[in-house]
Amino acid sequence: MNRSPYITDAPTVSVIMFKVLLALVPAIMAYVWIFGGGILVTLTLATITALLAEAALLKIRQRPIQPYLMDMSAVVTAWLLALALPPLAPWWLVVVGTFFAIVIAKQLYGGLGYNPFNPAMVGYAVLLISFPLIMTKWPAPLSLAKAPLGFMDQLHFIFTSVLPENIKVDAITSATPLDYLKTQLMLKHDVASITQAPIFGTFGAKGGEVITGAYLLGGLYLLQQRIISWHLPTAFLAALTLISLGFYTFNPAHFANPLFHLMSGASMLAAFFIITDPISGPTTPRGKLYFAAGVAITTYLIRVYGGYPDGVAFAVLLMNMCVPLIDACTQPRVFGHKES
Amino acid sequence: MNAIINFANNLIRSISTNKDVFQFHGGVHPHDHKAESTLLPIAKLAIPEQLILPLRQHVGYIPKIKVQVGDHVLKGQMLAEPEGAMSAAIHAPTSGTISAISEQIIPHPSGLPDLCITLSPDGKDTWGQLAPMDWRTADKKALVACLRMSGIVGLGGATFPTHIKLTTNGKSNVHTLVINAAECEPYITCDDMLMRERADEIVKGIAIVQHLLGANHCIIGVEDNKPEAANAMADACKAFAIPAANDSVKPEMSVKVVPTLYPSGDARHLIHLLLGIEVPHDKRTTDVGLQVFNVATVLAIYRYFEFGEPAISRIVSMTGNVEKPQNFEVLFGTPLKTLIDAAGGAKPDTTHFVMGGPMMGFDLPNTDVPITKAANCIIAAAPHLFPAPPPAMPCIRCTRCAEACPVNLQPQELYWFSKSDNFEKARDYNLFDCIECGCCSYVCPSDIPLVQYYRYAKSEIIAADKAKDAADLARERNEFRLARIEREKLERAQKHAERAQATKTETKKDAVQPASEPLTNPEVATTVNDAAASDKQAAIAAAIARAKAQKLAATGDATEATSEKTVATTLEAKSASTENKQAEVKSDKQALIAAAIERAKAQKLAAAQAGIAPKNVENVSASVQAEINKTDEIREKAQQLAVEKTEDTPTK
Predict the structure, then answer these.
(1) B281, B397, B410, B451: best to mutate for the A interface, most A CBs within 10 A
(2) Alpha carbon distance, N-terminus to C-terminus of chain B
(3) Nearest residue to B105 (alpha-carbon basis) of B148, B56, B63, B70
(4) Can you give the pTM of this predicted structure?
């Protein structure tokens, strides 16, 4: 019998997924610091929902439950979705989004390895289209909120949507910088004056840029661990920088600088955690560059011209559709073959 | 875009690697486990009680057995003779008696039995007549012809008959000989030890091969995890003053150390590492002036020409989960258990034995199987060395396999296509460039047995191709048969038509008769020829022709009558014309005559063609043949008459 090779040297799928979760920990810690402990509730809710949905669907599909639950991929999806949602999102929003991501976007397409679209982004896009109001209502960073909520208040708010007496919703929420920039630009203000608002930090959003920095940190860890290849984040960040630099140079009063775009919204989360999903992404080295650049450009265009403040989810889903084409067109030269 | 990728990749590589070599894409760094079996020198394994010599120990045709059960043979005596070029001889590894010629389990991935010669040694180990040769003076062609009888095959594991690689037919374009001493698979150390201990003999063997190929240059590629071997080879190269052979080639050889990276020992990858040449996938290495030999093979060549010793033994690494891992010089046919015992026996937790390395080797069915020419390494497997792989998970398209693939394939796509039996796609994605090195499986986080999928897809495609070829041949035969039946039918119809015509001609004996007949014959004759081409078009054409012939046969009388009438009318008109127009009429007449002659000639030709065809029909009964003859006679007579008539005309 020929079953060579007899030796392997690879982290298992579980280990890869575990390292991705580990890489998210700095960002979660930053979240807790900036927005309070509510994010932990959201993460827990998403994790439980994901595992239950995954187990139920595996049972219905008559697949072995234990090995597939242990691969941790459902947890990764749950965490990425939870981190993309507004931190104090009501519990049912988290459950619906996670359920949709796991059941519709992943399991109904055949489970791990078979989903053509990024499940977390499918879940996010469904929520954004279905509940745009809640999805765009972000809490203000604790340092900026007129009435910062404690952990128990946050927990209570997530499950009941009821705030403590004498605190109004306006007191805990604020517009996100991307949103604020967009609406203020429509009012013919220029970028320089808009970014004077207290919600803006040094590079992006006040507080938010810390989380963004934490994503970058986690992403570098994944690169160092060779969990992700350099192609995707590099091409994404380079393309986003180039396109925003182009617009910024053209009209700095109307277009934010590249650094703002890199450090705002879901840029870093996308660069290192979202577009690096191998299953729904391209496989060839050149394809990865095209894919990532495509996501960056689409994200930028949606941010600047689209109807939503951030465009990562739609950009990723649009580029997911192009993956088979990208792969087919970017096959690398095989050893001993001429350049075709 | 490519430039960016290449730049980044080169940047990463340039930090860590030897700039003197030309890197290939991918590759893996498994733990080499070579230290265990290099602690002790090569030991000679004692002659076992019985030697089992499979006839199939090489790539190609199995050799023809030259001995019978009960024969006493001497050491080095040929037991089986190569049949055809692509074959290798089998020799007696020691003196003794042939005790059986039977099917036995052989060391092969299939685990199936195959024909083997069993030799019971007499313990005297008496050499037969040995015929060393002076390779410097002897004719190269004769040397290669002798080598065909040596039983030497590629000892790196490929077991390709060596003489074929040295057959140059007088004109060799090989300028560089590459000696493969990379030994990139983990655990295997037989070449390493051979180089450490017998470097000077290897170098002499290299000189012979260079002489035979006319290769001026030789590069010996050694991985950097074998510094002792590399140094020994370098010293031997320096010490060996290569004498200029009679063709005044002054060969030179050098050792080049390559970084340890599996699979650097793949011939094409080693060439790329050493020379930066990428052998085109559809070409042989000799097409770019290179030939690759394994160190052990050149040593065997040296011993054959210098001492006349044929291939009767090889160095085998006995390693893994045994008490004393070591390299042994083992006679071919030695049962595996003898070798295991010599290495101190297998440790208790040994589960099975693997032949070859851990990347490309295979499970041996039992410990009775003999050591063959392909056996470079035997590994005693145990769970702590080769843990059972966990159940395969789905592919997550992480492309670690693509990053590891030394051929730069997209293993994840090939896996997808192979799994879904989408073989055409797999072929489009260059499945057949896969060298089955196992790097993809080695790095797969989902533990998918990728190589097995590729082997499966390859075998399915090859089987389908064979089936297609067979079907094509069958269809061709069938079409040819149908065409033949059609042709025969046509010929019969024609024959009938001719007979009818001939009868008419004979009775009427009319000069204008030939005018109608030749119209059909040439057409039919060409159709017959086309039909032999046996394609569909021909069949259709034949059908049309047949219809025409039938129609003609049916309306033959009418046509004749008409044409006769026309000519008669013309003649009447002419005879009725005035006397002074006689000359004109005469010239008209002459033209008519000339045309008639032309027609008659054409008819004669056609008749000859058509006449031959029926005679060629095989297995005709005597009566049919008589009929054919009779028809021919009548036709000839008719033609003669016609010609006579036309020839007469001018004189009238």
Answers:
(1) B397
(2) 94
(3) B56
(4) 0.78
Query: Which helix (H) or strand (E) element contains residue B367?
Result: none
Within an 8 Å CB–CB cutoff, is residue B386 touching chain A?
Answer: yes
User: Could you count the other beta carbons within 10 Å of the beta carbon of residue B272?
Assistant: 22
Q: Which of B5, B432, B452 to mutate to test the interface with A (most CBs of A within 10 A)?
A: B5
Residue B111 · residue A1 · CB < 8 Å: yes
ipTM of this predicted structure: 0.90
Amino acid at B627: E
Q: Is B410 on the interface with A (CB under 8 A)?
A: yes
| DSSP secondary structure string for all residues of B253-286 | EEEEEE---BTTTSHHHHHHHHH-----TTS-GG
DSSP helix/strand/coil, A235: helix
CB contact under 8 A, B408 and A230: no
Taking the C-alpha atoms of residue B211 and residue A240, their distance in angstroms, rounded to an integer, is 62
User: Which regions of chain B are under pLDDT 70?
Assistant: 1-19, 170, 241-251, 508-539, 542, 551-587, 606-621, 641-652
How many helices (H) and strands (E) would you count in chain B? 17, 17
- In this structure, how many other beta carbons lie within 10 angstroms of the beta carbon of residue B633? 11
Cβ atoms A140, A199 nearer than 8 A: yes
Judge: A334–B5 Cβ closer than 8 Å, yes or no. no
Distances (CA, A) of B292 to B180, B219, B435: 7, 10, 16
A188 Rama class: left (phi>0) / alpha (psi -120 to 50) / beta:
left
* Per-residue pLDDT tens digits for B2-49: 666 666 666 655 555 555 778 889 999 999 999 999 999 999 999 999
Q: Are strands B290-294 and B113-121 parallel, antiparallel or unpaired?
A: unpaired
Residues of B in contact with A325 (CB under 8 A): none
At A174, the pLDDT band (50, 70, 90 cuts) reads confident
Instruction: List the alpha helices (DSSP H) in chain A.
Output: 13-35, 38-60, 65-70, 73-84, 91-99, 119-130, 132-136, 151-160, 169-172, 177-186, 191-194, 208-224, 231-250, 258-263, 267-269, 285-305, 312-329
Alpha-carbon distance values, A125 to A129, A279, A294, B96, B206 (Å): 6, 18, 18, 82, 68
Q: Of B31, B385, B396, which is closest to A13 when you measure between CB atoms?
A: B396
Residue closest to B112 by CA, chosen among A112, A2, A291, A13? A2
The verdict on a CB contact (< 8 Å) between B354 and A6 is yes
Asked if A13 and A21 count as a contact pair (C-beta separation under 8 A), the reply is no
Yes or no, beta carbons of A11 and B445 under 8 Å apart: yes
| Helix-helix angle A73-84:A119-130, to 10 degrees | 30
Q: Do B452 and A3 touch (CB under 8 A)?
A: yes
Tokens of B402: 């693509």
